[in-house]
Amino acid sequence: MSDQTTILLIRHGQTEWNAQGRWQGHADVPLNQTGRGQAQALARRLAAWPIRAIYASDLQRAAETAVILGETVGLSPQFNPEWRERDVGEFSGLTGEETRAQYPEVWQGMKRGAVNPPSGEPHDNLAERAIAAYHRVLKRHQGEMAAVVSHGGTLAAVVTHVLGLPAHSYGRFSLRGNTGLSIVVQDDRGIYLSLLNDTSHISHVPVSIPQPIRSKK
Fold first, then answer.
1. What is the pLDDT of residues 85-115, one digit of tens each?
2. Which of 85, 121, 123, 151 is catalytic?
3. What φ, ψ does residue 96 adopt, rounded to 5°?
4. What letter does residue 58 receive in the DSSP assignment?
5. Global pTM?
């Protein structure tokens, strides 16, 4: 067994709602053509890496990304709702512009960059479950490499924890890159982040043209 533990934190590939700037949360939106190409590019990048297990959110966009990776490295992903994005309640399906127009009071009450959508999961709850899930993977794979395919908000909570930032340090870094790769390492120096939101593997992936955004009435 190696003295180094490595956890790969991977955001899912692109969906049409990503391309249109819509809040997704628990909405089960599948990958679009670009997203599948991104996942395939990620899989090619990691094909020879010694990954021992893949964990993933059970939402389609993360699950499909994980399956594409698993087919390349010879592993079946383990799906768990603990790795889901947070439920964004009444923001689901809306663009950022639409949420600001329809819920100005929510944005006015924003604290340290984190907003809690009406009827959604509070940011603190998301952080608690994401950090607990991360520690379970870390403990289970000491001396190994494991991958987690999840969502931007969920992985941001984990990275915030790893960096020792205050829980409400939302917006201090970005994980918006689809199939962005972040790497957490544990060795004799402790636990640290060695890579953040790297998307170099998708620089040549053709981009789908998003459908026009139509305001909901």
1. 999 999 999 999 999 999 999 888 776 667 8
2. 85
3. -60, -40
4. S
5. 0.91
